[in-house]
Design goal:
Strand order of the largest sheet: 1-2
Order of helices and strands: HHHHHEEHH
Radius of gyration: 35 Å
Oligomer: single chain
Largest sheet: 2 strands, antiparallel
Number of strands: 2
Helix content: over 70%
Structural class: mainly alpha
Shape: elongated
Length: 265
């Protein structure tokens, strides 16, 4: 059985039309409810539109192939009525994807700036905590009696084999208490040597600040990398889609205008 060109054209037109309509409906569900003031919503919608942007393009391409195959068998007037809305839709989509490029870049830069500010604020809070921690250590070190009490309490637990009020500690908890006892003993020894104590506290503060700085650099680097990938991937894809849609839409409309002029003549 030989498959006719009109049957192929009909199938391509049917598949292309269904894909185009379903993709436009999906766009509507993606956009609503509207939240233009929310930059996160704008970024999500932009990513969704661009990620799904190839489907309408494929559907329009199928329609074009169908029209090309069966062009001689379609009534010119009916063909014009069907084709013009498709070319208009392609032009509108091309304009939308073109406008999304600067909008997405602006939103990504804004969100990235807010994230950097949050990281800076978080680091400042942790710096204050480090200062408070070091000050607390200094105050404890200057109170030998309190240190002796803390050491004695931990020695009692260690000597009891990790038994506290009838409850048995696991090996990790017992190891932690032993480590705390050793650190407190070191501070007690240093309390008799103010210069060494001050040097030790400065060493602890420098180490903690170094770890905090490394964490800050890692988070900033990660945030910049994510922002760069998001901006480049979506923006480039949106620009390429806009070019494809605009070329198809505008050239299609121009072709239809030329045909109309020839028919009128």
């Amino acid at each position: 059985m030989k498959v006719s060109s009109s049957f192929i054209s009909l199938c391509l037109s049917l598949v292309g039309g269904i894909l185009l309509i379903s993709s436009l409906i999906e766009y509507l569900f993606l956009v609503f409810p509207l939240q233009f003031q929310d930059q996160t919503w704008q970024i999500t919608v932009t990513n969704g539109l661009v990620d799904r942007g190839i489907v309408p393009l494929m559907s329009i391409s199928l329609l074009l192939i169908a029209w090309w195959i069966h062009d001689n068998n379609i009534n010119e007037k009916a063909g014009k009525i069907i084709r013009i809305p498709v070319f208009i839709i392609a032009s509108i989509l091309g304009l939308i994807f073109l406008l999304l490029v600067p909008l997405h870049l602006t939103n990504i830069n804004s969100v990235s700036g807010d994230l950097m500010a949050q990281i800076t604020q978080k680091v400042q809070q942790q710096q204050t905590q480090i200062q408070g921690f070091v000050a607390q250590l200094d105050a404890i070190a200057k109170n030998p009696e309190q240190l002796k009490q803390e050491i004695a309490q931990r020695n009692q637990v260690i000597e009891a084999g990790g038994l506290i009020q009838g409850q048995q500690l696991n090996p990790q908890e017992l190891e932690l208490i032993t480590s705390q006892r050793d650190q407190l003993q070191q501070m007690l020894d240093l309390s008799q040597k103010p210069d060494e104590l001050q040097a030790k506290l400065e060493e602890v503060e420098i180490r903690l600040r170094g770890e905090l700085k490394e964490m800050e650099n890692n988070e900033i680097s990660k945030a910049k990398t994510i922002a760069l990938k998001q901006s480049l991937r979506t923006s480039i894809s949106s620009l390429m889609l806009s070019i494809a849609y605009i070329v198809i839409g505008w050239l299609g409309l121009q072709m239809m205008m030329v045909k109309s002029k020839k028919v009128s003549e």
